[in-house]
Automatic annotation (TrEMBL):
The lineage of its organism: Bacteria, Bacillati, Actinomycetota, Actinomycetes, Pseudonocardiales. Transmembrane segments: none annotated. This is EthD domain-containing protein. It holds the Pfam family EthD. It comes from Prauserella endophytica. Residues 13-90 form the EthD domain. InterPro entries: Dimeric_a/b-barrel, EthD_dom.
Amino acid sequence: MQHRIFLVPPHGDPEDGRVHWERRHGDLFTATPGLLGYRQNRPVAEEWARGTARFCSETWFADRDAERRAYSSAYYRDVVTADEMSFLDRDAAWSAAVVAGSGEPDPAGGVRVLWFDDYPPPGARWHPLELSRPVPPPGRGTRVYTALVAEAAEALSLTRGAEGAALVCRPVTFAEPSPKWSPR
């Protein structure tokens, strides 16, 4: 399974981009050929208000070749890329393949914290994901740690002072084509 995580800053008005991403982009993206799973990690309102929110998503393909074919398809090039250019700063995009990780509980219904650094703060049950390349500054290392908490306030208290190395979000999973697929 090829699992990848993306972080992309907004292009243009962040609020317009957020609304478009949440209401339209997911439906367009899930028609990408060969896609097995797609999750948007939607930053909570406080992240957008403090100006640290980034568009964060995850994809799953059968393998790296299926992912390459998808991103070189006419549909992705003509439809998805054109859509993304309207609200994402694609030139500043970062992504990494998830090469190993521990079993995170299903994030549906909770608040997810993504900690883009080698050393997460105490106070949560963290699940490490090993990445194929270093996380973007101000993060460090080749791990992202994830934790699920019940409330946004609790999640925000974990990330206070993180200066962009963390993201508090509500995960929304779009594509789940078979019972065999697992977003972990």
